[in-house]
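Thread: "does anyone have the structure for this chain?"

Original post by V.I.:
We have the sequence but no experimental structure in hand. Need at least a predicted one for the grant figures.
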Amino acid sequence: MRTQVAIIGAGPSGLLLSQLLHKAGVDCVVFERRSPEYVLSRIRAGVLEQGTVDMLEQAGVSERMRKEGLPHDGFTMAVGDTRLRIDLNGLTSGKNVMVYGQTEVTKDLMDAHEARSAQVIYEAENVTPHDFETDHPRVTYEKDGVSHEITCDFICGCDGYHGVSRTSVPKAAITEFEKVYPFGWLGILSYVKPVDHELIYANHPNGFALASMRSETLSRYYIQVPAGTDVNKWSDDAIWDELKIRLGAQAAANMETGPTIEKSIAPLRSFVSEPLRFGRMFLAGDAAHIVPPTGAKGLNLAASDIHYLSNGLIEFYGEKSSAGVDHYSQKALSRIWKAERFSWWMTSILHQFPDLGAFNARIQQSEMDYLASSHAAQVSLAENYVGLPF
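Reply from O.Q.:
Generated one for you, tokens below.
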């Protein structure tokens, strides 16, 4: 069996790459070790940058997003005594973000693949890239107990942080950068009306809190908890009580509470691996980088990787030029590090750090006061939040 591009991983980055390549006439096969149901069960980000929205339109999978997604022209930040609405639309000459869950993006991409009978091999076991340092890469896998091999021109590793693609690279050929934070986010989903029509990020002496949503009837909330916290030790009532404290009196007065339908804790860390190209294999998305969720950059950063990678591959086959694939790693990493910086900054201003005490609290308050008084600082925040240009 042969294809032009073998894609490992059927999350949103792998499926988006496949969809864009298909529309350009490039043949590809996607391998996924999990079932479609498992992939859809993963609860992830819900804020899409302007560029990500544009890419979904380019891929032909934006119809439901346009009907059900919630465009947001701004959001609120609260640190100590300072509460500030960031007018994204006004500060960026008309740009905004779209609240639309990653699960929904993945479902739309899956539906598009099913409609065209695309080659997506789910529950593929022992998927392994081979010979990617040569001109004849290949991927082996097992399905229903039978071994298979597919040869290709390129391999794209879109299989996440724990995937096989990055770990298949010799350690001497890759450099990894990591920062682990001493806290995580306890997140809940509940079928209650959102507390506000836009997101609220808050830093309270008790810790960070975020009021978000997936729809006008489905709310998503987060609170900062110490690393290693047992989610089972937090009752629904305790979480709601803490959210009311951290988000402030105005939000508490508007907050509807109810049973949680999902409750989990996500650790926070920053991670980047360099480079993103190893011969004929590329890394993209969480296989290459992780950002704290504070700046809403995870899925969006994966989309920007796919922008550079898909353009490079389409150029390779359409124009017989390797310039795009040759510069993929450099271009993607430049934007990755800018997003890492922004996510680090958002995390540093909005969380309580156990080892910095009163000094850090004063720095956070001063940073927030400066932001509130400086139009230029607000423009910088807004242009990063809606997404830097590709």
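V.I.: this helps a lot. Residues 328-350 form the longest helix (23 residues).
O.Q.: and The chain has a mean pLDDT of 96.
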